[in-house]
From TrEMBL:
Organism: Phalacrocorax carbo (Great cormorant)
GO cellular component, one term: plasma membrane
Stated name of the protein: Lethal(2) giant larvae protein 2
WD-type repeats, residues: 11-52
Gene Ontology terms: biological process: cortical actin cytoskeleton organization; establishment of spindle orientation; exocytosis; Golgi to plasma membrane transport; regulation of establishment or maintenance of cell polarity; regulation of Notch signaling pathway
Region entry Disordered, spans: 413-437
Length: 692
């Protein structure tokens, strides 16, 4: 479990939305809840040389004759550690107990809302009914106790043996979820307004008072991962990846990530190391630590305008930094913060883990930061004198990405909550579709930047956002002459300009004593000034330079530094190969023959043979704004095949698409669902795994 490529698939006969999934402890079984209120029991069974999820039973909870549908509408599911029963919380506030695997209802063990309210203070029970059951959690140390959370804020610790409440906790905010601390001494309640509260569980029956209530910045918590002792198991907001692991196993998880050659996790490695916060105007560099730590986060500022005359920033001020040490849990811990001036959205990032360098770009320019010496190496302003629109604050076409995302997720969240309260099949599905459509229209369309509206023709240097930095790339290659290679940094802009800087990185023994130095060596201007979306260097074998971290860990071959290198520049309209170090044009492939075709994403994919392990080849996978994917050979830029993949009207799907380096890809089909595809015959999306 948790290793790359381990997956199993089951398909419901019903065409209904899967609302919840719960594992039966230690049984290789799980239970699913659909939006038609049906429960399904699945088991892992071997079939045709692979393990598959096979449906064993299905069940629909029925109420007494004449009772409303809400009486048995399931809202929370708890598989008990005994593996014998499920506890089912409902909209009516009642909790039903069903036997496994038969799904027989044990009516004498039902926990009614009336029984719960008998122990609640009169003034509270008169003021509020229990309403629906929002969360059920088994006590981590005592299987005879469960925590029951009701939507209006009431929380009860219930004794299953004596069928009575032992503690009640009176919350004032709408409840979203509950989490136990591992030793059972306290728990956290998470609330609709983004706040969460710690509650102690005493051995006596005193009325518990909350230890503390916290409202995180931007009210975007649902996850208590910042509090020691709690595991981050669920995130209600999808701004950042949610890691599902106990904190003490983070070191093992990292080893797993190092081996993640065929999985989506490989794509997230750089994002975990160099990560733009939910405030997208700063760069945070993080390192992995398997122990808690308390330290000061160093702070640096990068002035991309360099006090140039004629430029005046009209946007918001930079965020203020916190002074003094900060305590961090085990895992990825920030150790340095770089703030760009002006504080515009960070549009591109590149990390070189061996050189200890990070490059960052905005709509005003790009910079290089030495995170070992914690020193700014250089900045380069890319603004054109006429590009005043980039100085208006957050990009006008993007508006405020943070604000838009937050508003869209709140709309979706409100829709989910309201639809759950009156869930009834088709109404719920239509509301989800409406929320998804609103998300697509309001948010991800705003993420599509100026190039969407550009025509396929020569652009003027006076077009808006020409200095917008689209891509950054590190390479050890021949930049000055053909006899000596050196570290280099490449940057591509929205105006079709490519900048190349020679870097001097001191050897390891003098790395902290001597500064990293940079000097501009090349500047290439594409004739049609089309936005540069990708830069790549091919080694002497015409193979793309491997990731330095993979070479250091013997996961990739070292590059060929004997033969001549080549530079590949991918713009929205064409792919062009240049010789190095002279940077003379060698060959090109235009993609504008098809009307309105523009490159949106490009990556190098390694295609292995499905018949032998001895053969593989590197090609380019190119996603266009028409939603098709073109496979193009290297280094001769011959079109191999073209696949229609995403509907051209699906702007959000195209904008969200990512590739793995072995020819698989993912894109969003709704705010909370992704589609997976494979371009490779070797790495099919069909799982072939076996569980003993």
């Amino acid at each position: 479990y948790g290793a790359p490529g381990v997956e199993f698939v089951g398909l419901h006969e019903e065409n209904n939305t899967v609302m919840q999934i719960h594992f039966i402890p230690d049984q290789c079984q799980l239970v699913t809840l659909l939006d038609d209120n049906s429960l399904h029991l699945w088991s892992l069974k071997q079939h045709s040389g692979a393990s598959e999820l096979q449906e064993e039973h299905r069940f629909t909870l029925k109420g007494p004759p004449g009772s409303p549908p809400s009486a048995t509408q399931i809202t929370a599911v708890l598989p008990h550690s005994s593996r014998e029963v499920l506890y089912l919380g409902t909209e009516s506030g009642n909790i039903f107990v069903v036997e496994l695997p038969s799904f027989r209802v044990l009516e004498d063990r039902t926990i009614t809302s009336e029984a719960v309210l008998q122990r609640v203070p009169e003034e509270y029970s008169n003021r509020r009914s229990c309403e629906l059951v929002e969360a059920l959690r088994e006590h981590p140390k005592n299987p005879d106790q469960i925590l029951i959370g009701y939507s209006r804020g009431l929380i009860v610790l219930w004794d299953l043996q004596n069928n009575k409440a032992t503690h009640h906790f009176l919350g004032s905010q709408q409840l979203e979820n509950l989490y136990w601390q591992r030793d059972g001494s306290k728990f956290i309640s998470c609330h609709y307004d983004g706040s969460y509260t710690q509650w102690p569980v005493s051995s006596d029956n005193r009325q518990p008072e909350p230890l503390e209530t916290l409202v995180p910045y931007g009210q975007l918590a649902g996850s208590p991962s910042s509090i020691p002792g709690f595991s981050p198991l669920l995130s209600h907001h999808l701004l950042t990846p949610c890691l599902q692991h106990p904190t003490e196993t983070v070191g093992e998880d990292y080893q797993c990530w190092e081996q993640a050659e065929h999985s989506l996790l490989e794509y997230g490695m750089a994002a975990l190391n160099v990560h733009t916060l939910s405030s997208p105007f700063q760069v945070l560099v993080m390192e992995l630590n398997d122990e808690d730590a308390e330290h000061v986060v160093d702070h640096a500022e990068a002035d991309l305008l360099q006090d140039q005359e004629g430029y005046r920033w009209k946007g918001h001020e930079k965020l203020k930094t916190r002074d003094g040490p900060v305590r961090f849990e085990a895992g990825f811990q920030p150790f340095v913060l770089v703030q760009c001036q002006p504080p515009a959205v960070v549009t591109s990032l590149a990390l070189h883990s061996e050189w200890k360098l990070v490059a960052f770009g905005t709509s005003h320019g790009f910079g290089l930061f030495d995170h070992q010496q914690k020193r700014l190496v250089f900045v380069k302003c890319t603004l054109h004198p006429s590009d005043q629109l980039a100085l208006e604050g957050p990009l006008s076409r993007v508006k405020s990405l943070k604000k838009s995302l937050r508003q869209s997720f709140r709309r979706i969240r409100r829709s989910r909550v309201s639809s759950r309260k009156r869930r009834g099949g088709s109404g719920n599905a239509s509301e989800v579709q409406e929320a998804n459509a609103k998300f697509d229209q309001d948010t991800l369309q705003e993420m599509e930047l100026a190039p969407v509206q550009r025509k396929i023709e020569a652009r003027s240097a006076e077009d808006s956002f020409t200095g917008f930095v689209r891509t950054l790339y590190f390479a050890d290659t021949f930049l000055r002459d053909s006899s000596r290679h050196c570290p280099s940094l490449w940057a591509g802009t929205n105006g079709g300009t490519v900048y190349a800087f020679c870097l001097r990185v001191p050897p390891a023994e003098r790395r902290m004593d001597e500064p990293v130095r940079a000097e501009q060596a090349k500047e290439i201007q594409l004739m049609h000034r089309a936005p540069v979306v990708g830069i790549l260097v091919l080694d002497g074998r015409s193979t793309p330079l491997p990731e330095p971290l993979e070479v250091a860990h013997d996961l990739s071959k070292s590059p060929d530094m004997q033969g001549s290198h080549q530079l590949l520049v991918v713009s929205e309209e064409q792919l062009k190969v240049f010789t190095l170090p002279k940077v003379s044009s060698k060959l090109k492939l235009k993609l504008t023959a098809m009307e309105g075709c523009r490159v949106r994403k490009v990556t190098v994919a390694n295609f292995g043979s499905c018949k032998t392990d001895d053969y593989s080849e590197n090609d380019l996978a190119v996603l266009t704004n028409l939603g098709d994917i073109q496979i193009i050979s290297l280094p001769f830029l011959k079109l191999q095949i073209r696949y229609p993949c995403i509907r051209k009207e699906d702007v959000s799907g195209i904008a969200s698409c990512v590739f793995t380096k072995y020819g698989q890809g993912f894109y969003l089909i709704s705010p909370s669902e992704f589609e997976r595809f494979s371009l490779s015959t070797k790495w099919l999306v069909g799982p072939r795994c076996i569980v003993d």
